[in-house]
Amino acid sequence: MPRGDSSALQIREASLELFFRHGVSGTSLRMVAESLGVTKAAIYHHYRTKDDIVRAVLDPAFTTFTTLVERVDALPPDEQVMALVRGLARQAVVHRRLYAVTLHDVTAAELRRGSAQEQTFRRMRDLLAGPASDRGSVARSALFLSGLMAPAVDADLLAMDGAELEAAIIEAGARLLGRD
Amino acid sequence: MPRGDSSALQIREASLELFFRHGVSGTSLRMVAESLGVTKAAIYHHYRTKDDIVRAVLDPAFTTFTTLVERVDALPPDEQVMALVRGLARQAVVHRRLYAVTLHDVTAAELRRGSAQEQTFRRMRDLLAGPASDRGSVARSALFLSGLMAPAVDADLLAMDGAELEAAIIEAGARLLGRD
DNA sequence: GTCTATATTTGGATAGAC
DNA sequence: GTCTATCCAAATATAGAC
Fold this sequence. Notes:
The structure is a homodimer of 180-residue chains.
Chain A: H1 8-22, H2 29-36, H3 40-46, H4 50-73, H5 77-94, H6 96-104, H7 106-112, H8 116-129, H9 135-147, H10 150-153, H11 155-159, H12 162-177
Helix pairs in contact in A: 1-2, 1-4, 1-6, 4-5, 4-6, 4-8, 5-6, 5-8, 5-12, 8-9, 9-12
The first copy, chain A, binds a DNA duplex (18 and 18 nucleotides) through helix 3.
């Protein structure tokens, strides 16, 4: 990473990579600065606090989820489950690391707690569980949502072709959540 | 937690609770000490470093996984997938927090990297994928493994009756990984 | 086995020069 | 927009008394 080029975008990209590898609270601003070849003070010129960076990194993911849920909510009930599965599969594959940190990191979860985003995650699980929502389908929906971090966690999936992986996740969703 | 009773076991229990809620690197020894009503120095009497505590907390989980894999490896091939699913479902339900931290926390993953435990996790995934091991079944296996942290992540699953949740996870495994 | 006190390092954050 | 230098708080860890 060439010095003199640490724009806000580069800071977010470097941060996401480190958040993914070491966790949000395991990542210091010194680590971010060093990975960009600048000093901490340079970072602080672009963001006021570490928390601002965390929010800026995670925000696009939250927006994506909210948009997805709104779009799926507008569909006929019998299309909702698989539309959401397809949308989530796409996100989990295209933005593997962002998705993993958003879903998975404890600090991200704390940030989410009590916010509108928490409602969005809850709504996703309920949409996946369908109108019946017996405890079995709620459990399978939650398992599917947690399972979506697999593309970021498993080394072989991380290396797998995007389209193929996306198709595999969609099939997994159909098996787990499809009509009995 | 009464003071004067912070044995090594109590330190591990308090640490696990905090690791689960705040992540390993989000948990300080001060937090552990305060939750036990003692000082940091008392903790250091029982463990030499924070890393020692982390290892001591996670070790039982690793042992359980290793034992489970050895047991499943000795079974006839056509029984292996569902035996492993049942074993994992049991662990995921009974030791929700320990399981979640072990599988899920980035610091735990770093600790695992390059160790024998990494091989055990790999072996679990391969056993679940079965002998064919096309990329689709590898993806579904990885998704199931990641999905097993759902009981620790989802509030409703966290509250669900153990036996019922275990049965739901086993059914999810059968749907995802069962013979086509 | 736990305490008080302290050493040392790291992390978040700011001031002011260039 | 980046630097050096610095502040302050918190974290890991140790020493020595009780």
